[in-house]
Known about the structure:
The protein is of the alpha/beta class. Helices cover 45% and strands 14% of the residues.
Amino acid sequence: MTSDPRTRHATAQPRNLTVLGATGSIGASTLDVVARHPGLYTVHALTAHRSADALLGLCLRHQPRYAVLSGCAEEASLGRRYAEAGFRGELLFGPSALDWIAGDSACPVVMAAIVGAAGLAPTLAAVRAGKRVLLANKEALVMAGSLFMRELGASGAQLLPIDSEHNAVFQCLPVNDEGTQTGRARVRRILLTASGGPFRSIPVEQLATVTPQEACAHPNWVMGRKISVDSATMMNKGLEVIEAHWLFDAPADRIEVLIHPQSIVHSLVEYIDGSVLAQLSNPDMRVPIAHALGFPERIESGARELDLCAIGQLSFERPDEKRFPCLALAYAALRAGGTAAAILNAANEVAVEAFLAERLRFNDIPRVIETTCAGIDAVPADDMDCVLDADARAREFAMRLVRLPLGEAA
Ligand code: NAD
Ligand code: MG
């Protein structure tokens, strides 16, 4: 046991924290946990893409040193509006400000909670600067896993997984206080759980007519729209298999997916002696976020106590590959290696956006991804240019597919 977290936090200096993607669902949960522990962190910077009003609200509440609107060009009137409303920090604009703030040496801890490929550059900037990086932005690792892990090794940065499954696996693996895992060689399997999303049991034929609103109505979690659709197609779990491969250095055939509709067991690790360790909690992202914010101490998250008797039953089943073709597509990309996962991720982002804009049917999402993966050759992901080139070519290819009349995407 290390020192009592309450006394430690009361006496230690608050650490600076930057939240990339502060206006999103993970951003909100992060700031909720931070606000429960005055004295633990000082909010150094908050970023959003274009949601100026939402960011202003957060700035007034947390008074960061910097606020960044990465999707807006410099606008003096906006700066004045922030100042007149009472924001005492500095408002910065554009993607270069985002990369700069992610790597700013004044801040040792960064929550990477931007959605999609847009999170890659700033998250890598934080890794290169040797920070403690709390990683929610799984797409960054999916796109550029080998480069990402190489940079991590070179800079000495520390990665703490926020995705609930990976945070659970992390908790079930032996680690030292620096967060370095030990004893991975004795792991037989990593079992990632998945709720199965909102369409786990509707007739498969109905998948052609489900709406974005239905897809975003996740039974257990309230999340951003993109990850909600990914959960409904189970591409989210596919991306998480790839994420687990990089985070835990596990080959594809040692990572399995289990459907667990209650979302109470967040993932499991099986050891060679047959022991299986699992992490459980109510489905609330503040649990993994508090784990990472406090690490290696435990801090309160605000999540409700787990009442297993009220839940009664925990059930598990195998994923239905017909209903969820995205899962197999992700395993195939992981096995293909190189830029295959970047191509898969880009095609998925384009298809999900088209579905959310009601330009693509739900069951055409996997078709767009499969056709894109088949249409673009993967090459070794030797450097960032290779990854960004694969991403751009896959986007262009997938964009052409989603412009076709509905049903002709395949
Ligand atoms: P969200 O859509 O709620 O928020 C996304 C944030 O990113 C916002 O602050 C937005 O302003 C910012 N953003 C969007 N596009 C951007 C761009 N082009 N450039 C810079 N910033 C941009 O998303 P979320 O649900 O909070 O998810 C964030 C990340 O965390 C995703 O990678 C997701 O897969 C992962 N994640 C989320 C959850 C969850 O419960 N929400 C769980 C596990 C993992
Ligand atoms: Mg997850």
